[in-house]
């Protein structure tokens, strides 16, 4: 949906949400614009089947080593129903200890990127559609705010919010990742309808009248699509 992070050896994928590269919401490191558009436009049912048949595995117990934590706070406004832009606060925790890393956001679907705070990182700054980091120590944390274009109207009056793929990969192996999303909805204008993947152990969903949360602990690549009902339906 939003972004990615590069750490020179580890890959954490996110989409308009950012990718962590060594490359957070997160998306897939090195994704091309064509791949971004394919994610936006492809069939959600086919995509879900592809995820279920892939390397994705939800974890029922936490791993021995704390996984990379990626937390999102998303606010959908009334205007978001017209223009698709959502407010995002994204925090990365338990970053890998490396000398250089970047969080890469989709250039056309992310704007107004700012660093809110950082701990255990010598230097952090925004460069175009990336957040650059130098000399990351153990237990480091960085929080970023931005606007992301990730809400899309459907022909039947519902809306979809698409996020991912989220992943953390080193060489050919995937490592555990913990992703949470706290979503605030415009009062009386949207309500939770459904979500892909379906709720299961390791992937929980809680929703109220004007808010919802998603909590995922997994290994592999995770795409999340949330469906909202409009006020009329």
Name of the CATH first level: Mainly Beta
Shape: globular
Total number of β-strand segments?
A: 17
> Which stretches are poorly predicted, pLDDT < 50 over at least 5 residues?
4-13, 23-32, 42-54
**Architecture, according to CATH?**
Sandwich
CATH topology: Immunoglobulin-like
| Helix-residue proportion | under 10%
State the end-to-end CA separation. Answer: 25 Å
Number of helix segments? 3
Number of domains: 1
Strand content: over 45%
Largest sheet properties: 9 strands, mixed
Q: Which terms would index this structure?
A:
233 residues, mainly beta, Immunoglobulin-like, 8-stranded mixed beta sheet, 9% helix
Describe it.
By secondary structure, this protein is mainly beta. It has a single domain, classed as Immunoglobulin-like, CATH 2.60.40. 9% of the residues lie in helices and 57% in strands. The strands form two sheets. Strands 4, 5, 6, 7, 8, 9, 13, 15 and 16 form a nine-stranded mixed sheet that branches. The longest helix has 9 residues, at 33-41. The chain is globular. The two termini are 25 Å apart.
Q: Any chance you could write out the topology, listing elements then pairs?
A:
Blueprint (H helix, E strand, L loop, with lengths): L1 E5 L3 E7 L2 E3 L11 H9 L2 H9 L4 E2 L9 E8 L4 H4 L1 E9 L6 E6 L4 E18 L2 E20 L1 E3 L5 E12 L2 E2 L2 E8 L5 E7 L6 E5 L3 E9 L2 E9 L3
Parallel strand pairs: 1-3, 5-13
Antiparallel strand pairs: 1-2, 2-11, 4-16, 5-6, 6-9, 7-9, 8-9, 10-11, 11-12, 11-17, 13-16, 14-17, 15-16
